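Review this fold:
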Amino acid sequence: MKINILLFLLISFSFSKSNSQNQKVDSTENGKFVRVEKNELKLYGYYKNSKRHKIWTWYNTDGTLNKQIKYKKDKIVWVLYFENNKAWLKINRKGKRKIIRACNCREQDY
């Protein structure tokens, strides 16, 4: 009985330790974040106290803007969607949508 309990505790501890290793949390993480894949810029943003802050920008495979999200202390302030590097839809933190201009994209995907 004691061996089963010890074995269970050992497995539980090992599992929780491996999960925590996958999640990187660093309270001192500040500055720019850049993701480049295959020599193409995919994502650009900022961290402040390990939280997303300011404007984060996602790019399409052809290098054009996909979307921008403004964060303040890891909370979304607004989201802008782009087509041909021009904003067409803005969504505020309450979910209110504002179509900035007509486009050929599919609004239901957003």
Confidence is low (pLDDT under 50) at residues 1-28. The first helix runs from residue 2 to 22. The chain has one domain: 27-103.
